[in-house]
C-alpha cells in the first residue's frame, strides 16, 4: 500500500505565503515525477508545478515567480512554497506522483486527498 498525504493548507490573506507538503509512504522503491495540481472553485483542474526525480522544475505561467516546488527524495516528500498569494489561487491542491513499488517494475499513479487553500481578506 502506497499513500500520498498533503498538508499545509489553510486560510491566508492576499499577499501572504503558505508551504504545502506532500509525503509518500508505504512500500516504495522510487518516485518519478511529482506534480502539484489544483481544483478551483469552478471545478477546473489546473497543473501547477512539476519536479522530476533529478530536480528539474516546470511551472504553470500563472504561478511563475511566486511558487517554488522542491522535493526531498530521502524523505519521499515534495513541497510547494507559495508566496504573493492571490484570491484566484484559492483551490484544493493535490499532489500526484508515479511511484514504483518495491518488487514491481511498473510505476503506478497515485493521488493525495488534497489540501484546501483559501486566499481571502
Folded structure, characterized:
The protein has 121 residues and is an all-beta fold. Helix content is 0%, strand content 60%. The chain contains no helices and eleven strands. The strands form two sheets. Strands 2, 4, 5, 6, 9, 10 and 11 form a seven-stranded mixed sheet that branches. A four-stranded antiparallel sheet has the order 1-3-8-7, with no helix packed on it. The termini are far apart.
Distance between the termini: 40 Å
Tell me the quaternary state: single chain
- What is the gyration radius calculated from CA atoms? 14 Å
Order of helices and strands: EEEEEEEEEEE
For the biggest sheet, the summary is: 7 strands, mixed
Count up the helices.
Answer: 0
Q: What amount of the residues lies in strands?
A: over 45%
Counting DSSP E segments of at least 2 residues, the number of strands comes to 11
**Average pLDDT metric:** 96
What would you call the structural class?
mainly beta
Ranges where pLDDT stays below 50 over 5 or more residues in a row are none
Q: What is the topology?
A:
Elements: E1 2-7, E2 10-12, E3 18-26, E4 28-39, E5 45-51, E6 57-59, E7 67-72, E8 77-82, E9 91-101, E10 107-111, E11 115-119
What are its keywords?
mainly beta, 0% helix, 121 residues, 4-stranded antiparallel sheet, 7-stranded mixed sheet
Short description:
By secondary structure, the chain is an all-beta fold.
Amino acid at each position: 500500500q502506497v499513500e500520498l498525504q498533503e498538508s499545509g493548507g489553510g486560510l491566508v490573506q492576499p499577499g501572504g505565503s503558505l508551504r504545502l507538503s506532500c509525503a509518500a509512504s508505504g512500500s516504495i522503491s522510487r518516485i518519478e515525477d511529482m506534480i502539484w495540481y489544483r481544483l478551483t472553485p469552478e471545478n477546473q483542474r489546473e497543473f501547477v508545478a512539476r519536479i522530476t526525480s533529478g530536480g528539474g522544475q516546470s511551472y504553470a505561467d500563472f504561478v511563475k515567480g511566486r511558487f517554488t516546488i522542491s522535493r526531498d527524495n530521502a524523505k519521499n516528500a515534495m513541497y510547494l512554497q507559495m508566496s504573493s498569494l492571490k484570491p484566484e489561487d484559492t483551490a484544493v491542491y493535490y499532489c500526484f506522483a508515479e511511484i514504483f513499488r518495491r518488487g514491481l517494475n511498473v510505476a503506478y499513479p497515485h493521488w493525495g486527498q488534497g489540501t484546501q487553500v483559501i486566499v481571502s481578506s
